[in-house]
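Hi X.,

You mentioned you wanted examples for the new student's onboarding notes, showing what a folding record looks like when two proteins sit in one file. Here is a clean example. The first protein comes first, with its sequence line followed by its structure tokens.
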Amino acid sequence: MFSLIPKEQVFFDLFEQAAKNVHDGALALEDLLENFRDIPEKARKVKDIEHAGDKITHTTIEKLNTTFITPLEREDIHELICRLDDILDLIDTAVNRIMLYKIDKPTDDAKALGKVLVHATQIITELVPQLRNLKRTDSLIQQCIAIHTQENEGDRIEQHALASLFENGHDPTTIIKWKDIYEDLEEATDRCEDVANVIEGIVLKNA
């Protein structure tokens, strides 16, 4: 039935801002790992991006609490914006550990996980705008599957990375440091998959 009260469309703008910001965070992480210099400055850039993400999340939740009619179910709006924010939080945590642990150089596996995050978040930036028109369900689902593929790749890289730590005779301190960083990066890919899962749920509800 036609509604005389328009649904608030600003949420789609906020989703797109959040997705772009998450991708910017992944690119900043990749730059840090691939060009391992000026680390404090690059870590500050990641922190600034993470803070910007927090503001977008806060604005979205605040808007959700004051909007009568929403274009998607309230719990889906809340879940999607929070899972997007989680990706950035984990990227920031990984970078903080690199600083705290005084890592002297990144491993190839860390660089590979950074690239997975860049690929996954790029797909998210292409996927989120399509929520404005849920008629293209095939395209949405295919892109969600592509994110799942990236998460699987993240799992594979983490397993290889952890095995290498224990097989190559590293000292216990090095093992603990890199185990933490690898887990943060892989968990960030898990949160990308969570974003895909939320969007798949939205698609099914609105099919």
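Then the second protein repeats the pattern, sequence line and then tokens:
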Amino acid sequence: MARELLGCRLVRMNRGKRLVGIIVETEAYRGRRDPASHAYRGKTMRNAVMFGEAGHAYVYFTMGMHYCLNITTESPGEAGAVLLRAIEPVEGVEEMKRNRGQRDDTHIADGPGRLTKALGIDGRLNGENLATSRELYVETGSAPEQIGRSTRVGVSRGAERKWRFFVEGSEFLSQGRPSSGGPRIHNYARAKRRRRGVVG
């Protein structure tokens, strides 16, 4: 599912406005077999949505300042979710920039916290059914030509697992560094364009 979501369109209806981004970066998290997962130690009030039906939003607050959006993927009773790490804004871009409090077109939603802030997603959407919701849902898109893979970002356990997936060459990827200590994999396309004088 972490691969299959790449290229799909994430839609957020916020205050009557349609905000849309193409999903370009994801990470997979499992249950008790994944020490980096919130579900590793079992079901709690915080992670209960992860143990529910597939296709629901699992939204959690982290670091005292950011919300992160995940999509559940498993059968009831078995935990699993895909973290959405970055999107390419395609509709409602000006509204996303206002939500972020910025004017330029760079770094609008290239990270889990930036993504949720740009789209106006918070804990009220935790548990939202993405198949029936009118506020948050996923539309089909075009499959990427090339998909990259790496270890996940910011995890200390389960760091060897290559469960981070991203659209190769996208200039909208997050700024994280894979936990294995590899090089940053974001914004290569943007860097090339900057050298040609296309972007600032």
